[in-house]
Task: structure prediction
Amino acid sequence: MTASTAMPLYHQIKEDLLESIKGGGLTPGDRIESEPELMDRYHVSRATVRQALGQLVAEGYLVIRRGLGTYVAEPKIRQGLLGMYSFSREIERLGMKPGTHVQAIGQEPAGPSVAAALEIRVGDPVVALRRLRSADDDPMMLETSWLPVSRFPGLADRDMEHARLYDVLADDYGVRPTRAREEFEPVLLSSDEARLLGKHAGDPALLLERVAFDADGRPVEFCRSVVRGDRCRYFVELRSL
Result:
């Protein structure tokens, strides 16, 4: 590597490491050389090495394990946003095994945000279902769904550990969500969220809020999900008008 190229040195290091990751020379879980080793290999300063590694960490290709070093991250799960999707089916499509662990399920009065999303009155009873979703036993997201009891009586008594929510709604209640509105917001994990997701409090995550509607345009579910920022990526394909 030489300084004569127009490309900054840190960018050259980043692209060299990225080529190794994408080409299979470095695989998930492999430890990256230490900063002194990279400085010696590329004949650059520590600041240059740190800038290169920092960009790869920010883009999700590397992960820092405190006290251990820098490692190649597990590949991100990519999810398109142009249509309705099921977490379990998307995980299966990617060749992984989906998992669901119910943290809590029961009835509670609807708070203001839940009532507004479901177009019901504050205090009306809703089913609250909190689930930890995983792929190949690696926790991916913490998901809480609220559904109106008036439309789904007895839902809180169902075994949602081994059933898909939308299948239950369709098969047992004759309700099938046909469209949804989603909003996204970057957040930092709380201590409780971090513990369940196997991360550290303050790690970056993505908050997804979804309202699902039936064919008549009536709200079916309000869902709030906290998604690991290091394992999931969402994309939208844009077309010219």
About this structure: The beta strands are 62-65, 69-72, 77-80, 98-109, 125-135, 138-148, 179-188, 204-213, 219-228, 232-235.
